[in-house]
Fold this protein.
Amino acid sequence: MNKGLAKRIIPCLDVKDGQTVKGVNFVNLRHAGDPVELGKAYSDAGADELVFLDITATHEGRKTFAEMVTRVAKEINIPFTVGGGINQIDDVERLLYAGADKVSVNSAAIRRPELIDDIANRFGSQVCVVAIDAREEDGIWHCYLSGGRIATEHNLFDWAKEAQERGAGEILFTSMNHDGVKTGYANEALAKLSETLSIPVIASGGAGTMENFRDAFTKGKADAALAASVFHFGEIGISQLKEYLRHEGINVRI
């Protein structure tokens, strides 16, 4: 893979029943909770891609999410990935048909790895992002299910390799040790993943400063960096972040 490609900055929005959750205090937005409006603001600010995660448990909420995806697709001209509650190929088809560019699968893929093969075979690897939530314990990275609530026997690096072999187009790795702490990404694990895999690796969990993003790309060798609260709360502006990264010698699209 061409590691010389521009590094991507990806805001992530958690959506419940059609509204963005995790406080958002974006300036000059009429409805900070409206994921479409927020997504458009990020797109206009220079985000390379977006991720929308559906954290709704109800069937009705899932339907609302698909309707939101259609609205997002009409308003936004950058690629976006959707995840949360995708358990079977029908879920994937519904969301792609609604306008999503990619889908992210996590727990369902660990429970039934053939889902990755099915998505890749039916829609192409470029559509399939495998999200991995992992925690380091005694030097070993264990994968977790159900939003980080259930430990599995899976090792981060072995599972990422298997996901790639089954047809995943990207790995979205969230370090549970680093998530929400804002002290930087899990750069050692990221670098090992990047060296092991031939597909892009997206860093998630730990963004607090612009330097954290720089380190994810230089030390962690990540292809993209995802963050939520630092963008939602206006702590870091995307255009300023990209200017900083370019100044640090990192290839980003401005």
DSSP finds ten helices and eleven strands in the chain. The mean pLDDT is 93. The two ends are 22 Å apart (CA to CA). The first strand starts at residue 8 and ends at 16.
